[in-house]
Automatic annotation (TrEMBL):
Pfam families named in the record: 2Fe-2S_thioredx (PF01257)
Keyword check for Flavoprotein: no
InterPro entries: Thioredoxin-like_sf
Domain of life: Bacteria
UniProt keyword terms in alphabetical order: Iron, Iron-sulfur, Metal-binding
Protein name, UniProt field: (2Fe-2S) ferredoxin domain-containing protein
Alphabetical list of PANTHER family matching this protein: NADH-QUINONE OXIDOREDUCTASE SUBUNIT F (PTHR43578:SF3)
Classification of source organism: Bacteria, Bacillati, Cyanobacteriota, Cyanophyceae, Desertifilales
Length: 99
């Protein structure tokens, strides 16, 4: 898929603290569950060190923290396909009224 076709981006932090917590496996899990119109991108740092692995879904600016590879299918099914963020996984710093 070309970047111009993607309507959403899933950015998965791959910086030091997130990688120590398994962000490489989270990225791999998203890559194993492709969704039409969604581009999965490994990013250097999302600036939220200590709360990772961090995942940011754009353009909605939905932040997920402490994501495990086992939780990725729920994000894919419920959020990326179904359009409903997974409230229990939301990063409360940016989504304080959810969870």
């Amino acid at each position: 898929m070309s970047e111009t076709q993607a309507t959403k981006q899933v950015r998965v932090c791959q910086y030091q603290s997130c990688r120590k917590l398994g962000a490489d496996r989270v990225l791999e899990a998203f890559e194993l569950h492709p969704v039409d119109g969604v581009e999965v991108i490994a990013v250097h740092c999302l600036g939220q060190c200590g709360n990772g692995p961090m995942v940011l879904v754009l353009p909605e600016e939905v932040w997920y923290c402490r994501v495990s590879p086992q939780e990725v299918p729920a994000v894919v099914e419920r959020h990326l396909i179904g359009g409903n963020p997974v409230k229990g996984m939301l990063y409360r710093k940016f989504h304080p009224s959810n969870g």
